[in-house]
Amino acid sequence: MALSRRTVLLSLALSLAAVPAWSASFLAQLDPDKDGTVDLAEAKAAAGKLFDLLDRDKDGTLDARELRGRMSKGEFAAANPDKDGTLDKAEYLAVVETRFRAANPDNDGTVDAREFATPAGKKLLKLLK
């Protein structure tokens, strides 16, 4: 059954209207090339900046206190393979990459405002902002 062009456009407009304003505004902050999406390199750049801000004692690692609830205890334990009670930047960025892939179900290599509005996208945002 063929859908009319009007029906398709109306559906698209309604789906875009359902994207929360906060995800669109945050997307603009994370999107230096202004293409309307965030790719993995852009996500890692934002995450690296946040890592540096969260690392208040400037020891190059984040402990659970410095992460301020951005990860559950289980997620923190899984991200900490050396079991030293901290995440270095490489370990943190590995979590960012995992969450990025989860927030990108269409596997196009980018996360858009609608994908950031999903539960997986919101988990990714916790590591970027």
Automatic annotation (TrEMBL):
EF-hand domain mapped to chain residues: 42-77
Signal peptide, first to last residue: 1-23
Keyword Signal: yes
Pfam families in UniProt: EF-hand_5 (PF13202)
MF GO annotations: calcium ion binding
Domain of life of the native organism: Bacteria
Keyword Ribosomal protein appears in the UniProt entry: no
PROSITE patterns referenced in this protein's UniProt entry, alphabetically: EF_HAND_1, EF_HAND_2
Keywords, sorted A to Z: Signal
Protein name: Calcium-binding protein
Species for this entry: Tardiphaga robiniae
Lineage: Bacteria, Pseudomonadati, Pseudomonadota, Alphaproteobacteria, Hyphomicrobiales
